[in-house]
Design brief:
This is Probable G-protein coupled receptor 141. It holds the Pfam family 7tm_1. Its main location: membrane. Keywords: G-protein coupled receptor, Membrane, Receptor, Transducer, Transmembrane, Transmembrane helix. The protein has about 300 residues and is mostly helical. It has a single domain, classed as Up-down Bundle (Rhopdopsin 7-helix transmembrane proteins). It contains ten helices and two strands. The chain has a two-stranded antiparallel sheet. Strand 1 and strand 2 form a beta hairpin.
C-alpha cells in the first residue's frame, strides 16, 4: 500500500523541524566560537562561509514547514521558485565548502604547504565574496531557465516543478551534476581512507592518543556528511529521471530524498556536541564520536 499524502507531509515536517532547530543551535554555537579564531585561516574562512550558507537556507525552512502544514502556498510563484531553488543552492555550496576544508587538510598532510592562510583579512573576505558572486551568477540563470518556465503550475502549490524534467537539457544537466558529485565524493573517500591507513602505519602505541590521527578522523566526518546527506538524493535522482511520470508517487520519494540533503545543516551542531576541543593551532579541529569512544577504551585523553 502506498503511503498517503498525510504520511509524506508528516515525514517532511519532522525532517525540516529537526533541521531548523538543530541547524539554528549549531549556527549560534559555532558563531560564538568563530569570534575567537584566526580569520586568516583557510579552514576558518570555509567554516564561516558554511555558517552563512546554512543560515540563508534555514531562513527559508519556515516557509516550507508552513506549506507542508497548510497544504497551501500564499507567498506567490516567484518566491516559491526562490525557496525551492535554495535547497539546491545550499546543497552544492555546502558540498563546495566541505571540499575546501578537505583539500586544505590534504595539502597540509602531504606537506605541500606548511600552512594555508590568507595574507590579510581583506583577502579572505574577497575570496568569499568571489565565491558567492559566482554562485549567484550561476544560480540565478538556472532558476530562471529550469524552474517553472515550461510547465503549468498553480499559484497555490509549490515545490513541484517536476514537469521541467521533460526538457532534455534539464535532464542532461542533472546527469552531469550527478556524475561530478559522485566522482568527487568517491575520490575524497578513497583519499581519506588512504591517509588514515598511512597515519596508522607510521604511528606507535594507541593511535587515538595521537592528534594527527584524530584530525584525520575529523576530516572523515566531512566525507561522511557528504555520503549520508547528498549521495542518497543523487543516486535516487538517476532512477527518478528515467522513471518519472507526472503525478506519480516518485515525486514524493524525490522530496524525501531532497529533504535529507538539508540534514547537512546539523553538521555544526554535531561538531559542538561530540567534540571536546574544536580549535587548535589557528584551525578548526572537530572531534567525532568514534574518536571519543576509542580514546575511552584506551584510557587516553579525548582532547
Amino acid at each position: 500500500m502506498e503511503p498517503t499524502d498525510s504520511i509524506w507531509k508528516a515525514i517532511l515536517i519532522t525532517i525540516y523541524t529537526v533541521v531548523l532547530i538543530g541547524g539554528v543551535c549549531g549556527v549560534i554555537k559555532i558563531s560564538f566560537l568563530l569570534v575567537k579564531m584566526n580569520t586568516l585561516s583557510v579552514t576558518t574562512t570555509s567554516v564561516i562561509n558554511l555558517v552563512a550558507v546554512h543560515s540563508l537556507f534555514l531562513a527559508m525552512v519556515p516557509f516550507r514547514l508552513y506549506y507542508y502544514a497548510t497544504d497551501k502556498w500564499d507567498f506567490g510563484h516567484p518566491f516559491c521558485k526562490i525557496v525551492s531553488a535554495m535547497i539546491h543552492i545550499h546543497m552544492y555550496l555546502t558540498f563546495l565548502f566541505y571540499l575546501f576544508v578537505l583539500v586544505t587538510r590534504s595539502l597540509l598532510f602531504f606537506q605541500w604547504k606548511d600552512k594555508l592562510e590568507f595574507y590579510r583579512n581583506l583577502h579572505a573576505v574577497a575570496s568569499s565574496v568571489a565565491i558567492w558572486i559566482l554562485a549567484v551568477v550561476i544560480a540565478l540563470p538556472l532558476i530562471h531557465i529550469c524552474y517553472g518556465t515550461t510547465g503549468r503550475y498553480e499559484n497555490a502549490t509549490c515545490f513541484r516543478f517536476h514537469q521541467e524534467l521533460k526538457n532534455n537539457s534539464v535532464k542532461g544537466l542533472n546527469y552531469a551534476v550527478i556524475s561530478v558529485i559522485v566522482a568527487v565524493t568517491c575520490t575524497f573517500l578513497a583519499l581519506e581512507v588512504f591517509i588514515i591507513l598511512k597515519v596508522v602505519n607510521r604511528l606507535s602505541g594507541p593511535v587515538c592518543s595521537h592528534q594527527e590521527f584524530r584530525a584525520q578522523l575529523q576530516s572523515l566526518v566531512f566525507v561522511c556528511f557528504i555520503i549520508l546527506c547528498f549521495l542518497p538524493y543523487h543516486f535516487f535522482r538517476i532512477y527518478y529521471l528515467q522513471r518519472y511520470v507526472d503525478g506519480s508517487q516518485l515525486e514524493m520519494y524525490n522530496e524525501i530524498c531532497l529533504s535529507i540533503t538539508a540534514v547537512s545543516c546539523l553538521d555544526l551542531l554535531s561538531f559542538v556536541l561530540s567534540g571536546s576541543r574544536f580549535w587548535r593551532r589557528e584551525s578548526i579541529l572537530f572531534s567525532c564520536c568514534p574518536t571519543a569512544i576509542c580514546c575511552r577504551a584506551t584510557g587516553s585523553p579525548a582532547g
